[in-house]
Amino acid sequence: RIRAIRYTADFSYRFGGKLVVEDVKSKPTRTKEYLRNKKMMRSKYGIDIQEVSGWKRMKSAARCRSRRGAA
């Protein structure tokens, strides 16, 4: 029996018509399994996963919220 490989990104959205996939990573969560899945997504589906640290993602989300509130 062969188990399916599943990958769920932390964030995915379209920006300028292009799919953006982001995954929040730290040293302990950047495992061999994650790196294998990242490589598979790029080779099989042409999807590049952008790794961001938790702090950068929080700052980015706060900027987006402040822009929406200002509009």
Identify the overall geometry.
globular
Biggest sheet architecture? 3 strands, mixed
Q: Numbering strands along the chain, what is their spatial order in the largest sheet? A: 1-2-3
What's the total count of β strands? 3
Distance between the termini: 54 Å
Overall average pLDDT: 81
Strand percentage lies at 15-25%
Helix content: 40-55%
Number of helical regions: 2
Rg over C-alpha atoms, rounded to the nearest angstrom: 15 Å
The topology string of helices and strands comes to: EEHEH
Low-confidence parts: none
Q: How would you classify the helix and strand content by structural class?
A: alpha+beta
Q: Gist?
A:
The protein has 71 residues and is an alpha+beta fold. The protein has helices at residues 32-45, 54-70, and strands at residues 11-15, 18-24, 49-52.
What distinguishing features does this structure have?
71 residues; alpha+beta; 3-stranded mixed sheet; 2 helices; 3 strands; 44% helix
Molecular structure report:
With 71 residues, the protein is α+β, with helices and mostly antiparallel strands. Helices cover 44% and strands 23% of the residues. A three-stranded mixed sheet has the order 1-2-3. Strand 2, helix 1 (32-45) and strand 3 form a beta-alpha-beta unit. The mean pLDDT is 81.
Helix and strand arrangement:
Blueprint: E1 11-15, E2 18-24, H1 32-45, E3 49-52, H2 54-70
